[in-house]
């Protein structure tokens, strides 16, 4: 036998083990009694009978799989219906559904950042946006987290089209991006020098001929939680439907299903249909996932209080943990991040919670760029006050 070509993998595995950073899968039993603050089922819809029935009905009607890519055989009337209702709900002209939020981000970034363009990307962005930047033909400049001035400076260096890319709610700490300031920075990038701050000479020559920068927002954690009735962070910031704003969403968090979408002006969505490789060369979203997402969206529309409840549970969780002396980040949506002193202590803390019946997320390097480990809790609209009490008690006891 020749030497294994994969010895380097063994070396990496040993290094990972030495650093205590090995990750393993833990299959979740169907009848798990754990109180789940680890998943992203923010509105408690993943097991809602109307949502699971939406999936089952769609599978019976359209089949288990989409049978092909969207441009060949994988576009059903169900996909069209979901796109229409999603765009309408979030306040955009058009939507395009893809097989995941990850694929939606790759599609949006690559299709909107051609050769010669500049991508300005927040340092705290989700891995799927980062990978979109890596795949895109444009040049990426990473800027400090949630810093519109840094965005402005970066945009000054552009020589062609530009987009600014940011999560609306950051997945690790649950903090919100300064959306209005980002939009202002994008728009100022298109005004002639001096006009934005009123220092331009009267009578100076007119438009510089530059358009503003596009703003691409990943609203994975905003949809269903932020804004009136959960219409998303772009809606809440008054940016929904703007000609220079495109958002991406996932169907796998607040909608309890699977899949993703890009929302924006109709001509941008048409461009994606023709140019986005993760749309064109990927099998269409499974009908069951589309059916479940559509059922969840309709529930959300009929029960707008679900979004407010998720936010209220997050705030309550934050306030009570902080009162117990834990260091947490004030939540802007449903994600509550609690700091741990070290990766090892984060792991032990999460393990003690699990032993006491509470599932929490544990984020540690290299998943977190700043090297700070935390427990990540997700507030759910369907948590009862008793469950909230239990979660707080388990978290504080397990910390001791
Ligand atoms: N963006 C953000 C901010 C996310 O947190 C996630 C999910 N972890 C995604 C995109 C990817 O979405 P999906 O899971 O639907 O691929």
TrEMBL record:
Its EC number is 2.3.1.47. The keyword Thylakoid does not apply. Residues 34-187, 212-395 form the Aminotransferase class I/classII large domain. Keywords: Biotin biosynthesis, Pyridoxal phosphate, Transferase. Its cofactor is pyridoxal 5'-phosphate. It catalyses: 6-carboxyhexanoyl-[ACP] + L-alanine + H(+) = (8S)-8-amino-7-oxononanoate + holo-[ACP] + CO2. Residues 189-211 are annotated as: Disordered. Belongs to the class-II pyridoxal-phosphate-dependent aminotransferase family. BioF subfamily. This is 8-amino-7-oxononanoate synthase. It comes from Streptomyces ortus.
């Amino acid at each position: 036998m020749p030497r294994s070509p994969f010895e380097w993998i063994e070396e990496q595995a040993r290094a990972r083990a030495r650093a205590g950073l090995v990750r393993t899968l833990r299959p979740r039993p169907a009848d798990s009694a754990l109180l789940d603050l680890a998943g992203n089922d923010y509105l408690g819809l993943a097991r809602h009978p109307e949502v699971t029935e939406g999936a089952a009905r769609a599978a019976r009607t359209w089949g288990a799989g989409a049978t092909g890519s969207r441009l060949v055989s994988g576009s059903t009337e169900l996909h069209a219906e979901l796109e229409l209702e999603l765009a309408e709900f979030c306040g955009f002209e058009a939507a395009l559904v893809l097989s995941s939020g990850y694929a939606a981000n790759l599609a949006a970034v690559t299709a909107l950042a051609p050769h010669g363009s500049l991508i300005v990307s927040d340092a705290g962005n989700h891995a799927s946006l980062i990978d979109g930047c890596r795949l895109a033909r444009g040049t990426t400049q990473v800027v400090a987290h949630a810093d519109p001035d840094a965005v402005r400076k970066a945009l000054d260096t552009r020589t062609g089209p530009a987009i600014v890319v940011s999560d609306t709610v950051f997945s690790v700490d649950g903090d919100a991006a300064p959306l209005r300031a980002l939009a202002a920075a994008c728009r100022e990038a298109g005004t002639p020098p001096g006009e934005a701050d009123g220092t331009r000479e009267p009578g100076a020559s007119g438009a510089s001929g530059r358009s503003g920068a596009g703003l691409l927002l990943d609203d994975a954690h905003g949809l269903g939680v932020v804004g009136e009735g959960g219409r998303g962070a772009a809606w809440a910031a008054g940016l929904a439907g703007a000609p220079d704003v495109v958002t991406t969403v996932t169907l796998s968090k607040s909608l309890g299903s699977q899949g993703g979408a890009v929302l924006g002006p109709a001509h941008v969505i048409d461009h994606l249909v023709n140019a986005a490789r993760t749309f064109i060369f990927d099998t269409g979203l499974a009908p069951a996932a589309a059916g479940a997402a559509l059922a969840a969206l309709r529930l959300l529309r009929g029960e707008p209080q679900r979004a407010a409840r998720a936010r209220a549970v997050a705030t309550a969780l934050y306030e009570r943990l902080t009162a117990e002396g834990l260091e947490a980040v004030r939540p802007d949506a449903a994600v509550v991040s609690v700091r741990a002193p070290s990766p090892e202590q984060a792991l032990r803390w999460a393990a003690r919670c699990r032993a006491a019946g509470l599932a929490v997320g544990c984020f540690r390097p290299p998943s977190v760029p700043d090297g700070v480990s935390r427990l990540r809790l997700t507030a759910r609209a369907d948590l009862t006050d008793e469950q909230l009490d239990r979660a707080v008690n388990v978290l504080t006891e397990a910390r001791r």
